[in-house]
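Morning!

This is the sequence you dropped in the shared folder:
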Amino acid sequence: MNDIRIGFGYDFHKLIEGDSLKLADVRIKSDYTICAHSDGDIVLHALSDSIYGAIANGDIGTHFPSNDKNLNIRSSEILSHAHKMLEMSDYHISNVDITIVLEKPRLQDFILEMRENISRLISLDIDRISIKSSTSQKIGLIGNNQAIACYSSILVKK
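The structure's back. Tokens below.
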């Protein structure tokens, strides 16, 4: 019998004045940047946490606590670690579904590049990676361009 598991990840960060956002290892021109201890790539953070969750092995904070050693760490390093742990557990990813929530900038022109980067980082066919973006209709912290959120769901099989 195949062992199938679902993983879910979520990340939420404050936005501050800046010149770009880094999402799925893509630099996107913006009037804001993400305030974070690491490089702030919430897409890779949510994906990493969904991997850790699927294999019941903690979260980013468990493996990369907010300390001087991990200050400004590249999120691709975090994702690489999560992916290696997944492989060591004899699981592989069947598919990834990600939703990014922010008011602006619009992300449609960057979705394909984000999917390509994730495909490369976790060695998964691009047709198994979905990335969507949404707004919060100018409501709340996200709607007022004060924050950004990302949700990630994955299905893994043994």
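Headline: Helices lie at 42-54, 60-63, 75-88, 111-122, 140-143.

More detail when I'm at my desk.
O.
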